[in-house]
Amino acid sequence: MPARVPVSPRAGALVLAVVIAALELAGCGGQSGPAARSPAASSGTASVSSVRTTTSAPAPPPAPRPPVPALVVSPPRAAGAGWRRVASVHGRPAAWEAQRGGVTLLRFDQQFVRLVLHAGEGEPSGTWRYGAQIEPSEIHHVVAGFNGGFKFNTGVVGWKSGGRVAAPLRSGRGSIVTYRDGTTAIAAWHAGVPAAGRPVYSVLQNGSLLVDHGAAAENVEGCIQSCWGSTVGNVDSVARSGLGITGSGQLVWGAGESLLPATLAHGLIAAGAQRAVELDINPDWIAGYLYVHGGSGPSASPVVPGQHGAAGRYLEPSARDFFTVVAR
Questions:
Q1: Selection from 165, 203, 167 nearest residue 185 by Cα
Q2: How far apart are CA 216 and CA 99, in angstroms?
Q3: Which of 52, 68, 94, 123 has its CA 20 to 30 A from that of 311?
Q4: Which portions of the chain are predicted below pLDDT 50?
Q5: How does pLDDT run across 203-226, given as a tens digit for each residue?
Q6: Strand partners, 72
Q7: What distance in Å separates the CA atoms of residue 186 and residue 274, rounded to the nearest whole number?
Q8: Phi first, then psi: what are they for 232, rounded to 5°?
Q9: What residues form DSSP beta bridges with 206?
Q10: Sequence spans of domains, the chain
C-alpha cells in the first residue's frame, strides 16, 4: 500500500473551500449549458451599437451618342478664296469648295473618297461596269460628279476601263489613272503614270498636261483653240473644266463658264495642283454636282454658277462619259 502523504489542516480547508465554490457556480450561481448570454444577445440585438452605412445610388450611364453618319454632303454656296468643307465621311472632312481667280474648285481627300470613270450611252459605246448613270452601288455613297473629256472624234482622247480599251492610249498624253486599289494619279502617260507594279483599272487621256510641276503649260496663252480645243462661236473664253492633283495626292476639280486655258490652269495651281489635265469645254458639257443625301436618296446641287449642266445630272443616263467621287 502506498504511503499516505500527510495534509495540514490549513491546506485541507483551502481545498474544501475551492470545491464548494465550484459547486455553487455550477449548480446555483450559473446556468447550465453554454456561457450565459447578455439580454441583448438573447433578444437578437447586437451587443455593439451598429453603424449605419449610407451607400449612394450609382450614377446612370451616359446617354449613347448618336451614330456618326457615314456620309454628309452639304449643298454648295457662293464660294470664297478660303476652303469650305462640303463633305464628311465617317465624321472626317473629305471634300471642300473654294473659288480662286474666277475658277470654281472642289478638292477631295483620297483617304476617304475614290474617283470612278463612267462610260456614256454614246461615248464610249458598249456595256461597261460603270455605265451612263450613277450605279446602285454608288447611289448612297456618291459625293460629287463632273464631266469627262473631249469627244472621241477629236483624236486627243484615250479611254480604258476594267481592262478594256475604248480609245487607244498614247505616250505623252495627260492621263487620269485610277489604280485597282482605288487611288488616282495624274501625269503624262509613260512619264509618271502608270506606276510600275500597280494594276490599272481606268484611264482617261485628254490632250497634253495643262499643269506640270506646278506650272502652266507654255502654250496656254499663245495656242488656244488648236491646242486646247475648238470652241462654240470660235471664241477663246468659254466654259472650261479640268482635274488636277496636289503634292499630297488630293484631287482638285476646277471649272467656270467663261475661262481661258491660262485662267483655268492658274486657278488649279492656286488650289495646289502640281499636275492637271483639261477636261471638256463649251457650255453644254461643263457639269459639276454635289449630291446631298436625304430620305429619298441623293439630290444633285450644281456647283458652278450659271452652268448648263448635264441632262439628268448623272442620276439618269448621260450621253457622254463622266466621273463620280464616291465615299470609301
A1: 203
A2: 18
A3: 94
A4: 1-51
A5: 999 999 999 999 999 999 999 999
A6: 88
A7: 9
A8: -65, 130
A9: 157
A10: 71-76+84-156+210-327
